[in-house]
Amino acid sequence: MQHFFKLSLLSVALLGSQFASANEFWSQDRQWLLGDWNGERKQLEDQGYKFTTSIMSQAATNLAGGYNDDNTLENAGQLTLGTTFDLNKIAGWENTTAAIMMTKRDGNSLTLERIKDPRSSALGNTQEIYGRGKIWRLTQAWVKTGFADNTVQFKIGRMGMSDDFNSSQCEFQNLLLCGGQLGKSIGSIWYNWPVSLWGTNVKYQFAPEWTLGVGVYEVNPDNVKTQSDSDGFNLDMNNVKGATIPVELIWKPKLAAFDGLQGEYKIGGLYSTAEANDVKTVDKVHDGKYSFWVNAQQQLTQYDNDPKRGLFMSVNAVVNDKATTAVQSTQQIAFWYKGLLDYRPNDSVGLGFANYVVNERARDRQIEINQSNGYDQYDALAGNYIPVQRDELNVELNYSYQWSPAIMLRPNIQYIHQPAGVKEVDDAWVAGLTMRANF
C-alpha cells in the first residue's frame, strides 16, 4: 500500500501548488523536475546531446469481479534513462542520429494477482508497463541516417520492433489500448519496449504523403529471458532461430473529410522464418508464421485553430496466422479529446475499446485436453483443468492531468469482460492511476 500513499501525497501536493512560480519545483511550465542545470542542459541540447530520465508508475485496484474479488492494490513501475545524439551537430554527419536507452521495471500486476484465472495464459493487463521481467534492459542502441534529401532513412542496431512498425498512440493505462498490438498477440517473435533485439530497417518516402518501410529483425528467445540483469544486456546471436521481416506502407494525408486535419494510415504484414508449433496438432511444426495489420490515426476536430487541441481517434486491427497463433485477431478503437478546458489546454479525456479473439483451433485443443482428463465443464478447483479461452474485451475511461511538461497524472476506470477469455470468470471493474515524471 505504500506506493498508493506516495501517489496520493504527490497528487495532493500537485493540486495544492496552483500558484507556484516558474522557478519553483512544481511550476506548471517546468520542463524537467531537476531543472535546466543552470542552463547547461539546454546548451548540451544545442550541441547535440539530449538526455532523458523519467519514472512511470501505474497503480491498479480491483473494485469488483475478477477471479479473486478480494480487494488489493498493485503497483508497477518503470525507470527510463537515455540519451539521443544529433551526430550532425556533434560530428558533422548530415541527417544522422543515434540513441542509447536503458530501462528498469519492477512491481506487480493486478491482472495476474486478482483478475484472471491463474491457470489461464494472460491476454490483457491493467498495467501496460508490467512485463518482460523486473530487470535492467538495454532498450535502445541504434544509429539512423538519411540519404537522398532524407527521403531514404536507414536504421541499424538494437531496438524494439514497434519503434518503427505497427506503432500507434498510447493514451491509456490498459495494455490492450496502449501502442501497437502485435507484441501482445505474437510476443514470441515480435518484441516491443522494453526488449531490444538486433535489427535493421529502411524507409523510403517515395511521395510527399507516402512512405514504404521494410525491416529484418532477429528471432532470439534469449532476448526475453528475465532471470538476471545480464539477460537484459544480451548482445550475442548464439540462439537465433530465424528472422522476422515486416513490410509497411504509410499514408499521411490531410483529408477534406476532416477539414484538412492530419491523419496517418498504415497497412502492413510480416513473415517470420523461425519454426512455429501448431496450436492444435501436437508435434506439428510449421516453417514460419505470418501476420497482417492496419493502423489509422486521425485528428477529427480542431479547437480554436490550435492543432494540438481537439478530438483524435485511433483504430488498430491485427490478423494472425491461424495455424500457429493462439490469438487469432485483435481490434482496437480509441478516442481522446485534448484541451477540453481552456484553462487546461494540455489535459485530455480518453475512451478506448480493445477486443482480443482467441483462435478457435487453440480453444478446441484446450477442450480436447480437458475431455481426455475427464472434464466436461469448468472446474474452479481442479489444478490440472485448463480454462477454455474465448474473447476478452477491455474498456478504459481516463483523464490525463498534465500539470506541466514534467508531470502527468492519469486516473482511470477499466472494465474487463471475460478476463483472459474465460466466460466463467466474472467481469472485472478496476480503478487505476498512472503517474509520469520527467527529470
Automatic annotation (TrEMBL):
Which classification does the entry list for the species? Bacteria, Pseudomonadati, Pseudomonadota, Gammaproteobacteria, Moraxellales
Gene3D superfamilies for this protein: Carbohydrate-selective porin OprB
- What domain of life does the UniProt record list for this protein's source? Bacteria
Family annotation (PANTHER family): PORIN B (PTHR37944:SF1)
Q: What organism is the protein native to? A: Acinetobacter albensis
| Keywords carried by this UniProt record | Signal
What is the similarity comment for this entry?
A: Belongs to the OprB family.
Tell me the leader sequence span: 1-22
Pfam families attached here? OprB (PF04966)
- Know the name of this protein? Carbohydrate porin
